[in-house]
Amino acid sequence: MYQIKQAAQAETEIRKSRFIAMALPVSERAQALRELARIRSEHPSARHVCWVLLCVGDSGMDDDGEPSGTAARPIYNVLMHRQLQNVLLVVVRYFGGIKLGAGGLMRAYSQAAVAALDAAEKTPVVALASWWLACGFAHENSLRHWCLQHDLAIAEARYDEQVRLQVSLPLVQADTLRQSLLDNLGGVVVMHDGAVGDG
Fold it and tell me: pLDDT tens digit string along 32-45?
């Protein structure tokens, strides 16, 4: 699977209709809906604003008034063919006065989606694991230094009876990093898998 690194846009004209396609990297539905609202506000006179959202654990699509299956479905097919996720692809259509028919619409929306994705830089999706690392206050600096040495960004820190740091790491490196943690800080740091820190 792949994702796009940054927003990309392309415009095509088909039988006097303008199709403006935008591919945007997103990580959740709320972010996608904010982007969609922004795009709608930037194109108030557009006839249709069709979109497809594909992200981990969430997806959605809307033909926005085009005949069912003629806009969002072709966009979705392009995204699946390109093996993309964590993406919102929006195609804004300014109607040019000539009807395209169902087949023509499907080709037009596919072509617009392809053009935007051709302009986008793609990167492989890296599966991540989440760890909570707990230690006494006296060992916090050693733990933070170990995280820095292994390029692990600290997403959250909690201080109660212990210091707890949440880090994300590439899943493929989990075993190696677990062993390194045991070798270097095994007596003073306890590791918990998962996204919550009360384990």
Answer: 999 999 999 999 99
